[in-house]
Design goal:
Layout (H helix, E strand, L loop, with lengths): L9 H13 L5 E5 L26 H12 L5 E5 L9 H9 L3 E6 L6 H10 L3 E5 L5 H8 L4 H15 L6 E8 L7 H11 L2 E6 L12
Parallel strand pairs: 1-2, 2-3, 3-4, 4-5, 5-6
Length: 215
């Protein structure tokens, strides 16, 4: 199959992903689109240093990168950070990746507006994951270093859920599993069920902080 089409279909992407897997090539790529962030999470240290948009890859860089990745096949490409929603060109990045790949998004959901969510879905986003680590606002807000983080995350899940434009698009509540919240996983799962979204668990990694105390 040639890659000169404007946009591969959903079926073509799935078929290419399967071939990529069978060939034992990577099928998952995490791409940090920015180190800027509007939170002060205990489990991350990016916010402790100053970062600017000037140090980030351009939209054109992402377009070239998406095409280069496609040589190995179609991939699940997770756009993360930092906070990806801080990039004004995020929908263009999603669109560039969506030509060949299945772009995903991990975000805190802060101040997400319905029109922004629709724009991302229409650009070709396959899935959006919102981080919620505890079933209550007090502990989640303390973990994320920003008052209102829990309420905004719940609202963002509802916004993404209600603005989807295609059946394959998936909304996830994602909990970062640490030593402190592992006994609350079932309650966070119950929250996901009440909201009508999928649930994911991501084990804590010390790569962003060097701090192993959260494991």
């Amino acid at each position: 199959m040639t890659l000169n089409k404007t946009l591969l279909s959903t079926g073509e992407k799935k078929a290419r992903l399967l071939r990529t897997y069978v060939a034992r090539h990577p099928v998952w790529c995490a791409w940090q689109v920015t180190y800027r962030c509007n939170f002060r999470c205990r489990i991350c240290s990016y916010w402790k240093e100053s970062h600017s948009a000037a140090e980030e890859l351009s939209t054109r860089d992402f377009e070239r990168g998406a095409a280069n990745l496609a040589r190995a096949g179609s991939l699940l490409v997770n756009l993360a950070g930092g906070e990806p929603l801080l990039r004004r060109d995020l929908s263009r990045i999603v669109a560039a990746l969506a030509r060949f790949h299945m772009p995903l998004l991990t975000t805190n959901g802060w101040r997400l507006q319905p029109e922004r969510a629709r724009e991302l879905w229409r650009a070709g986003l396959w899935g959006a994951s919102i981080s919620i680590d505890y079933p209550d606002a007090a502990r989640h807000d303390a973990q994320r270093g920003r008052r209102g983080a829990f309420d905004e995350a719940v609202r963002a899940l509802e916004v993404f859920r209600d603005t989807r434009t295609a059946p394959h698009q998936r909304v996830n509540l994602m909990a970062v599993l640490t030593a402190d919240n592992q006994d609350n996983v079932e309650n966070v799962l119950a929250l996901a069920r009440r909201l009508g979204v999928h649930f994911m668990v991501q084990p804590y990694s010390c790569l962003k902080t060097g701090d192993e105390s959260h494991r």
